[in-house]
């Protein structure tokens, strides 16, 4: 049973460029959430996708956008990259249950460096 | 808005010492609580979770946590740590609707052999 997978592992971009990160959820999961983890900090919630729509969004600018596909995989896009966007980007998948008991399982992350 | 605080930024222990990592949250409603661990070079792994019922929750690798509602706390404990427990530990809170998943800033644990 494959866990959450993310690609690429590492990425180096320059300021102003655009980047796309990809995530495949754990088998049986229908929801994908994205997080930004700066060095030495806890993950910060970016947004969550369920049924191909953005279900909830954290305090991130519109430069951060996403998409969920019919097979539940997801992409995170960041436009007009800033130096401060350098971080580990984590994808988490879960299964939304009616009880709200939603356990998130994390992928290995994509390390983005903006020069 | 929910928030999570973790009392210690960095904890250093010798092997066989007992561990307690503090976690406090602020939220007015019913919450679900989690502890995750991030070993060096590895991804976040779920240690344990609390949804309801017995406030003393047992997780993997000998870890346990106690939910004290009156103190808004969910402290992580282990009676005897090992060198392999060296990692970053994150407490997280989610509301009862399965939303608003918020992490604490993390506590780095270093266990000396």
Please give a structural write-up.
- The complex is a heterodimer of chains A (115) and B (113).
- Chain A is mostly beta strands.
- Helix content of chain A is 0%, strand content 50%.
- Chain A has no helices and eleven strands.
- Chain A has strands at 5-7, 10-13, 19-24, 31-37, 44-50, 53-57, 64-68, 74-78, 87-94, 105-106, 110-114.
- In chain A, the strands form two sheets. In chain A, strands 2, 4, 5, 6, 9, 10 and 11 form a seven-stranded mixed β-sheet that branches. A four-stranded antiparallel β-sheet of chain A has the order 1-3-8-7, with no helix packed on it.
- Chain A starts with a strand and ends with a strand.
- With 113 residues, chain B is mostly beta strands.
- Chain B is 0% helix and 52% strand.
- Chain B contains no helices and twelve strands.
- In chain B, the strands form three sheets. In chain B, strands 2, 5, 6, 10, 11 and 12 form a six-stranded mixed β-sheet that branches.
- In chain B, strand 5 and strand 6 form a beta hairpin.
- Chain B is globular.
- The model of chain B has no long low-confidence stretch (mean pLDDT 93).
- At the A-B interface, strand 5, strand 9 and strand 10 of A face strand 5, strand 6, strand 10 and strand 11 of B.
**SS strand fraction of chain B:** over 45%
Overall 3D shape of chain A:
globular
Order of helices and strands of chain B: EEEEEEEEEEEE
Work out the helicity level of chain B: under 10%
Regions of chain A with pLDDT < 50 over 5+ consecutive residues? none
Could you tell me the number of beta strands of chain B? 12
Mean pLDDT of chain A: 93
Oligomer: heterodimer
Radius of gyration of chain A using CA atoms only: 13 Å
